[in-house]
Amino acid sequence: MIEDKNQKKTALSDLGEFGLIEHLTAQFECSHPSTLKGVGDDAAVLDNLNKVTVVTTDLLIENVHFDLAYMPLKHLGYKAVVVNLSDVYAMNATPTQITVSIAVSNRFPLESLEELYAGIHLACRQYKVDMVGGDTTSSEKGLIISVTAIGEADKDEVVYRSGAKTTDLVVVSGDLGGAYLGLQILEREKQVFLVNPNNQPDLEPYAYLVQRQLKPEARQDIKLLLKQLDVKPTAMIDISDGLSSEIKHICKQSGLGAVLYENKIPIDPLVLTTSEEFQMHPLTAALNGGEDYELLFTIPVKDHDKIKGNPNLTVIGYMSDQHEQAFLHSKADELIPLTAQGWNAFG
Amino acid sequence: MIEDKNQKKTALSDLGEFGLIEHLTAQFECSHPSTLKGVGDDAAVLDNLNKVTVVTTDLLIENVHFDLAYMPLKHLGYKAVVVNLSDVYAMNATPTQITVSIAVSNRFPLESLEELYAGIHLACRQYKVDMVGGDTTSSEKGLIISVTAIGEADKDEVVYRSGAKTTDLVVVSGDLGGAYLGLQILEREKQVFLVNPNNQPDLEPYAYLVQRQLKPEARQDIKLLLKQLDVKPTAMIDISDGLSSEIKHICKQSGLGAVLYENKIPIDPLVLTTSEEFQMHPLTAALNGGEDYELLFTIPVKDHDKIKGNPNLTVIGYMSDQHEQAFLHSKADELIPLTAQGWNAFG
C-alpha cells in the first residue's frame, strides 16, 4: 500500500474549542421526538412523556482500554458508543441520546478526530440515537473518550440485575469468547509488526474474531425479540467483563446462586480452533474474556418453551438458592466455583 | 505543620474495580423521588413526571483544568460537580442527578480518591443531587474526571441561549474576575514554593479570590429569585469562559448584538486591588478570566423595575440588532469590540 505522506493535516489550535465542537458535530442531526435541544446550549434538553429515563456512562483511556496501533479511530468511535448502548439495552430500555466528551493531546490532527467522529456518527445512525452534547478539550497524554448514554422505557419494562428468582433459567444471546480471541490475534500481529514492519498480516481467516473486538454490536434486537416471544426477563446484564463476572453480579444483587453448564455455553467454532492455536482453553475466553456485549438474563422456567430453539438465545444454566455462589457444572460432572476475574484496570 | 509521613496508604489494586466503586459510593444516598435506581446496575433509572430532562457533561484533565499542587482533592471533587450543576442552572432547570467517572494512575492511593469523593459527596448534599452512576478505571497519566449532570424543569421554564430580543437588558449575578485572580495568586505561591519549600504562604488577605478559584459555588438561588421577582429570562448562560465569550454565545445564538458598559461590570474591591498588584487591568479578569460560574442572562426591558436594586443582580448592558456584534462601551465613551478569548485548551 502506497501512502501519501503529504496529506494536509490541520492543527487543532487552528480551530479553537468552540470551532472544533462546531466542526465535529455539524454532521449530527437530531431526530428523536424527545430531543428538544441538542448540542449548543449549556445542556441538552430532553422531553419525557411519562416514561422512565435510564442513564449510563463509560470512560475510555488510550492504552488502558484501546491501543491505536491496531484500533482504527473510526472503529474506536463506533465501539465507544456501542459499549454504552449495550448497558441501556441491558436495562431492557431503548437508547435515545448520547453525549460524547473527548480529550486529545496535540499529536492528534483534526483529521484523526474527524475519523473518530465518523465512527460515532455511524453508531448514532445504526442505533438511531441523537448526539446531544459533550465536551472537547486537550489531554497531557493520549486520547480519552467519555460517553454517556440516555435511554427510555415504560416503567414496567425496566429489568434490573436484582430480579432473578430461584429456578429461573439463565440465558445468553449470541456466542462468547470471540472478542477476547480477536484481541489476542491483534496483539500477536502487533508484535510481528514491531519486529518486521514490512510484514502484511493476513487477518482474513480470523475476520469474525477481529470484528468482535474492533467493531462490536450491541444487542438492540433482544428487547423486541423477547416482547414478541412474550417473555420478560427477571434480571439482565450485558457481558462486558466476561460471563463469570456478570453472572456473579446477578447472583449478588438477586441474593441467589447459579449453576452454569460447561457444555451449554455457546462458543463459535472459530473460537475453538483459535483457542487451540493459542494453547488456551476456549472456556477461559468465554468466562473471563469479556467485551462480547451479548446479553445475559434470567427468565422464569415456565417460559422455557417460548425461547427453546431460538437461534439467538441459549439456556446455559439456572439460578439456585445458594446465596451468591456461582458454579460451573463441568463436562466431567464437577461443580467448579466461578471466579470473577473480570477486568481489573488496577491489577 | 508536622506531617505524618507514615500514614497507611491502600493501593487501588487491593480493591479491584468493583470493590473500589462500592467503597467510594457507599456513602452516597439517593433521595430524589425521580431516582428509581442509582449506582449498581447497567444504568441508572430516572422517573420523569411530564417534565423535561436536561443533561450536561464536562471532562476535567489534570494539568489542563486543575493543578494538584494547589488544588486539594476534596475541593477538586466539589468543583467538578459544581461546574456541571452551573450548566443546569443556566438552563433555568434544577439539577437532580449526576454521574461521576474517574481515571487515575497508580500513583494515587485509595485515600486520595476518598478525599476526592468526600468533595463530590459534599457537593451532592449542598445542591441536593443524587449520584447515580459512573465508571472507575486507571489512566496512563494523571487524574481524569468526567461528570454528567441531569436536571429537570417544566417545559415552559427552560431558558436557551437563543431567546434574547433586541433592547433586552443584559444582567449578571454576583461579581466577576475573582476566580481568575485567585488562580494568579495560587500560581504565584506555587512558584515561591518551588524556590523555597519552607516558605509558608499567607493566603488570608486573598481568601475571597482563592475560594472563588478552589471552591466555586453555582448560583442555585437565581431560578427561585427570578420566580419570586416574576421575571423570566429570555436567554441565559453560565460564565465559565469569561464574560466576553459568554455574551458572544448569546449574541450568536440569538442572532443579535450587545453593548456592555465598562462602568457597570460588577467587580469586587479585592479584585481591583489585587489586579493592581499583578499590574493587570481588572477588566481583563472580568471579561476573559472565566470560572466565576455566575449567570449571565437577558430580560425584557419592561422588567427592569422588578430587579432594580437587587444586590444579587446587576444590569450591565443591552441587546442590540447589530448581528452578532458585541461591544464594550468604555468609560472613555468608546465602543470597543469584545473578543472572545475564552479558554482554548489547544492554544
Oligomeric grouping of the chains: homodimer
Per CATH, which architecture of the largest domain in chain A? Alpha-Beta Complex
Q: N- to C-terminal separation of chain A?
A: 39 Å
Largest interface between protein chains, with number of residues from each side: A-B, 80 and 80 residues
Total of helices of chain A: 10
Shape of chain A: globular
Structural class of chain A: alpha+beta
Count all strands of chain A and give the number: 13
Tally of discrete structural domains of chain A: 2
User: Could you name the ranges of chain A where pLDDT drops below 50 across 5 or more consecutive residues?
Assistant: 1-5
Which strand-content bin applies to the residues of chain A?
15-25%
CATH first level of the largest domain in chain A: Alpha Beta
Strands ordered across the widest β-sheet of chain A = 8-10-7-11-9-12-13
CATH topology of the largest domain in chain A: Phosphoribosyl-aminoimidazole Synthetase, Chain A, domain 2
CATH superfamily of the largest domain in chain A: PurM-like C-terminal domain
Main sheet: strands, sense, barrel of chain A: 7 strands, mixed
Radius of gyration of chain A (Å): 21 Å
**Overall helicity of chain A:** 25-40%
The overall average pLDDT of chain A, rounded, is 90
What's the helix-strand series of chain A?
Answer: HEEEHEHEEEHHHEHEHHEHEEE
